[in-house]
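[Automated response] Your request has been received and processed.

Submitted sequence:
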Amino acid sequence: MRYLPIIFTTALIVSACSPKSNYERIEGKTMGTSYHITFKADKHDVNAIKSMIDTRLHEVNQSMSTYIEDSTISKFNRLPSHQSMMIDKDFKQVLGDSKTIFIASNGSFDPTVYPLVELWGFGSHMSVERLQSPPTDEEINNLKNRIGLDKVVLQADEIHKTHDGVGLDFSAIAKGYGVDVIASVLSTKYGINDYMVEIGGEIATKGNNEKGRPWKLAIDSPVLGSSVSNRKTFTTITQPAGQTLHVATSGGYRNSVMYDGMRYSHTINPKSAKPVTNPALSVTVLHDSTALADGWATALTATSYNQALVMANQHHIKALFIIESKDGKGFELIKSNAIINDQTPN
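Generated structure:
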């Protein structure tokens, strides 16, 4: 699993989509990336919406940022084993979603794997040199009693850890949850039924876009060396009319290396305690919430493509896999059975 810093900022730029449009756009920085919100404003006070989003992002940040010393997650990570502490509603929701995916994926998704990421030296950079001199079995075994979400126990609104040194990092699911939080502000607090919310590529949509049509989302081609400003669309997903859409994409093509004829991902497989070999270049998941889509996209990236496709089919996960074509000159789109059977437009 790959982890990114959870860093929220509340400096938002608000602008209209066009002079005659009643759609508004809010943009800003969050979780070490950027977010973009487009919505049908009608007569709503955009500044009030901005303020409410600021407030909720601050609350989530105070709950789950490992970069804030007195955040809920930082306090838990310092907590001795078997000592309980209270958690807030955001933390409880993300922990619950994480446990659901952890159990269903047989541990492929695991927010306690961060020590292994650090051991392999993949916290911010991956290199062939590290693969040439990997951690020893002894070094890996010394961390095993700290790995496993089953070592974090939730009872009502309190949690404790069963072993000293166990820590959590929700970065592999937090962007998706952040999207859900903002979407909830728009729909529940203000009754806005036409919106698109995006944080670092994880997206939730509802209703129609400015042109009165269901939202259409692009999935990038997994081109090595591509970036947000230098990308190509490989396929698209169109939101079914009158429904919501929750989408997350994970992929190692921007963080992988070739070594000894094998492609190694930046992602660590929690079960093998080693970098993932031959994963799908890109995995996009559609789910009931963006948090669940985000977590499942990570789980399916944290194993080989063949195993990931089996896992998606076993658990009826709507997943789109982009893999290298057999001739090695392009890419191929593979749909999980849930996508095929549902005939989700793309």
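Summary generated for your ticket: The CA atoms of residues 28 and 34 lie 6 Å apart. The first helix runs from residue 46 to 64.
If you did not submit this request, please reply to this message.
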